[in-house]
Amino acid sequence: MLRFDEIGVLPEPGDNVAISSRRLEAGTVLDFAGTPVTLPHTVLEGHRFVARPVATGEPLLSWNTPFARALRDLDVGDYVCTPTSLAAVAARGVAGLPAEPSAENEPLDPYELDESAVRLGQQVTSVEQPGTFLGYPREQGPAGTRNHVVLLATSSRSSGFVTELAKRFAGTDGIVVPVAHTEGGEDGTPNNLPFLLATLAGFALNPNVGAVLIVDTEGDLVSGRAIQEFMTEHGYPPIRVPHAYFTRRAGFESDLVAAGRLIEPWLPVVAAQERQEVPLADLWIGLQCGGSDAFSGVSANPLSGAVAREVIRHGGIAVLAETDELIGAEGYVLENVRDLPTARRFLRTIQSFKDRVGWHGHTAEGNPSGGNVYRGLYNIVLKSVGAARKLDRDVRLDHVIDYAERMPGHGFVFMDSPGNDLESVAGQVASGCNLIFFTTGNGSITNFPFVPTIKFVTTSARYALLHAEMDVDAGRYLTGTPMDDLTAETFALTVEIASGRPSAGERAGHSQVSIWRNWRQNGPREGISITTDGRTTRNILDLPAEDRDAPLAGTPLQLAGSAGSQEGGAESFAAPEAPASGGEATTSSAAPKAPASSAAPAREAPAAASERPATVAAAPALSAAGPAGATGLRLLRVDDRVVPEAVGLILPTSLCSGQIALRLAAQGELERWAGDSVTRMVALPHTEGCGSSGGASEETFARTMLGYLLHPNTRLALLLEHGCEKTHNDYFRSRLVEAGADPSRFGWASIQADGGLDAVTGRVRDWFGSFDLPAPQEVRSTLGELTIALEARGRLTTPTAEALAITGREIVAAGGSVVLSSRGALLASEAFRYAAFGSPAEVGPTIAHGQRFTANGWHVMRMPGTDWMETVTGFGAGGVQQVVAHVAGGTLSAQRFVPVVEFSNDPETVAQYGDDLDAVASGNALEQASVALQAIAAVAGRQLVPKAVASGNVGFQITRGLLGTSM
Predict the structure, then answer these.
(1) Which terminus of the chain has a lower count of CB atoms within 10 Å, N or C?
(2) What string of DSSP letters covers 596-609?
(3) d(CA 616, CA 853)
(4) ∠441-442-446 over CA atoms, to 5°?
(5) CA dihedral 486, 491, 495, 500 (to 10 degrees)
(6) Mean pLDDT across the chain, nearest whole number?
(7) Residue percentage of the chain with pLDDT more than 90
């Protein structure tokens, strides 16, 4: 029989439910003050059980706050579970659970402020002799805890560039760090533009920046000039460290060299700067939590709040964030506030966040991740009250600021931000924080590039498992160490790390950046928006099909007398072989393919030959281009299919495992973990899977992920979870089963559950090395084996539009498929539509974003935005094996998985960016089509590596669609 005090934790006296400190199986006998109680059901570690009888309808209390209400009379020892928590645990295959939930979530009614009862308190008493740390003094603002040369991309278009540029300075002991992110890459003005500009300006002014190069790409809306204008307009001080603005205007390599010349003189200056004794008032701490569990609000969050209290007592600043993770805890936060305007602004900030989420059809109840729920945070109230414990009860709330806003004064500050850890940290860093406290239950390994992160883990068992990645074992409080002792130890560690001692994250060399991502809706919309009282829900199937990116039939366009049937006078054209094949030119012998289905809407009849562009109507065969698509293409036979390559894929299930997946893929490629069974190793880091809304955006995300796991080019695939995300490994196991796939075909690894970076590296290495597969065999094949996406960016002439149409017609005629973007320049071109489809009629999408089609032919993918990297990611998920893009006015980043081939017919682009082009096209439409087809054959035959891939100008990003938003 176990004593209650051995296994039960009451967050506060007066609570009527306790938290189990270990897993308790059904039938376990507990001693409650001398009375034996047999547990009727299994209670997982971190889950709650009744500590004193609760009648039907009575509130269940943690921290004396109602989080749920009993659905029946509950006795001591009964397992407390809500519908959502029971479903989450059952999905993990836990035995011994009740058949029905015992409680329902407490409704999230709007918090009503009783202004007459607001406690206008005093800030915690200052110490008599404020302390110091060793930092880097700055001409303005606080001293830095670190001293980095930061390479700052203004938009996603320059993120690949700054990442590759930083690699050129890898031997500088980590002084040079890139800040690459996903924002600002759309055409037009994003809704998050003010936040984006404030964040970038704040990064440049952060005290840990010893020098900064701000990099944009020609034509960027979010440019260096835009940042300067924003800073001037909003009264920012000038940047006083060495800095420069660099605009990409030439080839990738030549730009790298030119930018490197700007950085080189800064390195000795920054390296020569020495730490000096500075006041602890210069310590500005961002308070964060991630991978939270039931003990976060008991051990780690109170400890971080107590240390923050001590920093404030020495004159420093502590910044609490994550707005949606305080919904339900408003009363706690406002127990001690500076004045009524501060209280009112806090509540306005909460309401504004609720409104923005509501515009997209969500409520804050969607915030807790699958890992949160599994580890005992059943709903947003439990998560919020636990998170609010980072505000110590003795500390006063002094200021409320917007995301990335400059600090208005010292003390305790609340900053508006999403619950997404990385996005929230970015705002705190932009506001001036030079150190981050990050509390975690599961063991989040998150770190920021130029601001050190001190990680507090909630339980000693989890600390032991992940000690190489964690800094503070807050779980010692649960086993008897007084909070005052832990506070003193951790405060001393904080001063040491601020003074230069590397944190665990810095030793691991892992970091990520994500800025508050753009959202699509900027006001309420009928049929989508919901009220924000926490009671409203909307079935995803009730939303408009296009807005929710609903799947389509997946059948090809039905085009009378055009590409599919080759009717209307245009001839069939030959596909060239790669230049190295050495064969003679022949024309295609592939028979035209009839349309596969009649499910698509009817189109206009084709124009008469006299009405079509003459270059198409009079087109001769491309016999001069090289051997035809019949047998000239060199592909690979892999298992039961013929493909251009055989990829070993490491797919992170969420943003927090992305950079680790990237490192593992690079190591696996170098050490050849999979031997000859794959042609290369690829990882696809992204920003989704946690810290964002569910519903429609989650469906698009899951569809995209499955698209890469099941892509014909993927031979071996392993999923790498962080361990606490919404979309964990178990989530994807069930999704694969739904898709008719066998989960045992795939590898599975977990950074947290496997025991940290070294352990998970060994697990991934062993899985890829466990196969004895034959090496892919080269075979002669045709264009009909390929799925190609066609794209155009920038100026598009009629001959080039026709050339791309001819290219697509060749592929479809050979039996292959061509995919276009619904928002792309090609479909907007009447010349392209005439040449490709024989009619100027507009065509609609045949597949949703990232959806696989059901039959070969011409396809149009629905695209909710214009971001290039999101577009090409959607292409790849749909089965595209290569993207061919005509570019004018600039070049594109490549995608990590799908090769992107870039050619141009624009003289100015060729002159300026020729070094980055894979081909230059000239002449009429037929001649340009020949160039495009040659490039397709060369890349598919592995005889040409696209320039952007070879240079390292690569990325990957998943869209959130029209209804996704950060939470």
Answers:
(1) N
(2) S-S-SPP-PPPPPG
(3) 28
(4) 95
(5) 40
(6) 90
(7) 83
Would the pLDDT of 588 be above 70?
A: no
With bands split at pLDDT 50, 70 and 90, how would you rate the model's confidence at 617? very low
Reduce the DSSP state of residue 105 to 3 states and report it. Answer: strand
Reply yes or no on whether the pLDDT at 67 is more than 50.
Answer: yes
Of residues 315, 318, 322, the one with CA closest to residue 285: 318
Look at the block and give the residue holding tokens 């994807």.
732
**Nearest-angstrom CA–CA distance, 396 and 398:** 6
Both tokens assigned to 49: 């059980």
- pLDDT tens digits for range 690-717: 999 999 999 999 999 999 999 999 999 9
The answer, yes or no, to whether residue 471 has pLDDT greater than 90, is: yes
Among 347, 332, 318, 343, smallest CA distance to 409 is for: 318
Residue 38 phi, psi dihedral angles, 5° rounding: -95, 125
The three-point CA angle 70-74-80 to 5° equals: 65
Mean pLDDT of 458-486: 96
Strand, helix or coil for residue 69: strand
Specify whether the CB–CB gap between 692 and 786 falls below 8 A: no
Q: Predicted confidence band at 726 (pLDDT cuts at 50, 70, 90)?
A: confident
Positive or negative, the CA dihedral 725, 751, 385, 309 is negative
CA–CA dist 435, 421 (Å, integer): 15
At 904-924, the pLDDT tens digits run: 999 999 999 999 999 999 999
Distance CA 800, CA 511 (A): 43
Q: What is the mean pLDDT of residues 236-245?
A: 97
**Burial class of residue 539, CB neighbours in 10 A (0-12, 13-18, 19+):** exposed
Torsion of CA 829, 831, 833, 839, to 10 degrees: 130
Q: Please name the CATH architecture into which domain 579-618+781-955 falls.
A: 3-Layer(aba) Sandwich (3.40)
Rounded distance, CA 130 to CA 316, Å? 10
| Four-way CATH pick for 141-277: 2.30.29, 1.20.58, 3.40.50, 1.10.510 | 3.40.50
- What was the pLDDT predicted at 744? 96
Whether the pLDDT of residue 54 is over 60: the answer is yes
Whether residue 578 has pLDDT greater than 50: no
Calculate the alpha carbon distances from 529 to 363, 365, 534, 536 in Å: 10, 15, 13, 10
Longest dimension (CA), the chain: 98
Coil, strand or helix: which one is 570?
coil
Q: What pLDDT was estimated at residue 350?
A: 94
Distance in angstroms (rounded) separating the CA atoms of residues 113 and 842 = 55
**DSSP string of 128-191?**
SS--EEEEB--SSSSPBS--EEEEEESSGGGHHHHHHHHHTTTTSTT-EEEE--S-S-SSS--T
Q: Could you tell me which CATH class the domain 2-105 is placed in?
A: mainly beta
Is residue 577 over pLDDT 50? no
Look up residue 45 and give its DSSP letter.
Answer: T
- Residue 202, H or E segment: helix 193-205
Q: Which pLDDT score, from 0 to 100, does residue 602 have?
A: 30
Residue 464: name the closest of 45, 761, 752 by CA: 752
Q: Which residues are 792's β-sheet partners? A: 886
> Is 921 exposed, middle or buried, given 0-12, 13-18 or 19+ CB atoms closer than 10 A?
buried
pLDDT 10s digits, 670-694: 999 999 999 999 999 999 999 999 9
Nearby residues of 583 by Cβ (< 8 Å), 6 or more positions away: 577, 626, 627, 632
High-pLDDT (> 70) share of the chain, %: 92
Half-sphere exposure of 660 (CA within 13 A, CB side): 31
pLDDT of 823 > 90? The answer is yes
**CATH code for the structural domain at 646-775:** 3.40.50
